[in-house]
Amino acid sequence: MLLKKTWGWWMSTGYLSYLLLSEAGNGIDALFRPSTSVDMSLFYILIVGFLLLYLCKERVIQSYEVTISRSEVIAWLSGAAVFVSVLYEVILFSSSV
Predict the structure, then answer these.
(1) What is the H or E stretch that residue 4 is in?
(2) Where are the transmembrane segments (predicted)?
(3) CB atoms within 10 A of CB 29
(4) Secondary structure of the chain: what % helix, strand, coil (to 5)?
(5) Using one digit for the tens of pLDDT, what is the confidence trace for 60-95?
(6) Is the CA virtual torsion 76, 82, 9, 59 positive or negative?
(7) How far is CA 20 from the centre of its chain?
């Protein structure tokens, strides 16, 4: 990402969107388990959310020469995060059987 490569932007935003979804799941899980803390999940959600908001600004998207619109970027990132999360859970479930 430091070299302003498009693939670096996609990998960074993809990982951050997966991390946001994962931390949201951890925060929801912490609400139902009294032994875990919600504070760190909320902190991570805020930090990752602000980073994603910054990386999805039109100015930043144009500087990394991403050719699709902002709404399409958000749709792709959301779909990829859900896909990776479901795949991760399937792998965990199938390895425990």
Answers:
(1) none
(2) 41-61, 73-94
(3) 12
(4) 80, 0, 20
(5) 999 999 988 888 998 999 999 999 989 988 998 898
(6) positive
(7) 4
